[in-house]
Design brief:
The chain has ten helices and eight strands. By secondary structure, the protein is α/β, with parallel strands linked by helices. Strand 4, helix 6 and strand 5 form a beta-alpha-beta unit. Helix 3 packs across helix 4.
Length: 226
């Protein structure tokens, strides 16, 4: 594994499916919603791949026959169910804590750019990972646009005081790579995430990695993490 050809100003991450494994809690909320709607819930294995696409995609797996209007009307209820117990099973992916410790020890700023609504992001992080200290957090409604638009990535770079062309964006969805590439960052697609049924090798990322340890090695912070 080669080391990144520059010392990064900053490293920015998608949240669900990249840093945090939140699929179990998102599926549990769908199970409760389906119960309210009187339908059988889909198995976890069908829901996990679409988690990075957000609440509408998740609801669509559980209630595929409803109209787009009816689905949209269920989003607030689904999010309320999720918010009530959203950190019950959510944990950092294996290797993420060591990776972030390595970045902190190397004095490399890191941040989060997620399409998750801000009220959920702001509540989840203190519950699930209260010890994390990102230099920037940009949620799906922080700006008028969200990924794959590059503006949220560029906004995170500005908040953290990082030069985009000397920074890295990491994600598990094609929209992450589109946003990072358009913003001028070095992009990394991660196979450990949800992937939305896609092939990360086809997304145009600068690197495709299997495990957070591989990312630590690419960034040159593996020893710092250890």
């Amino acid at each position: 594994m080669s080391i990144l050809p520059f010392r990064p100003d900053g490293v920015f991450f998608d949240l669900d499916g990249t840093l945090l494994d939140s699929a179990l809690d998102l599926h549990a909320a769908l199970v409760d919603l389906c119960a309210e709607e009187g339908v059988a819930p889909p198995p976890y294995e069908r829901v996990r791949p679409v988690v990075s696409r957000g609440s509408r995609a998740i609801i669509g797996v559980g209630l595929p026959e409803i109209t787009a209007e009816a689905l949209l009307a269920l989003v607030p209820r689904y999010l309320a169910i999720y918010e009530a117990a959203m950190s019950r099973h959510t944990v950092a992916f294996d290797g993420v804590e060591a990776l972030l410790a390595g970045l902190d020890n190397a004095a490399i700023r890191w941040g989060i750019v997620t399409n998750k609504p801000g009220f959920l992001t702001d509540a989840l992080l203190p519950q699930a990972v209260p010890h994390w200290e990102p230099a920037a957090v940009v949620s799906g409604d922080t700006l008028p646009v969200k990924k794959p638009d590059p503006a949220p990535v560029l906004h995170a770079c500005a908040l953290a005081g990082c030069e985009p062309t000397r920074s890295v964006f990491v994600g598990d969805d094609r929209r992450d790579i589109l946003a990072g590439n358009a913003a001028g960052l070095f992009t990394v697609a991660v196979r450990w995430g949800y992937l939305d049924g896609g092939d990360p090798d086809a997304w145009g990322a600068d690197a495709v990695l299997d495990h957070p340890d591989d990312l630590a090695a690419l960034l040159g912070v593996r020893e710092a993490a250890a």
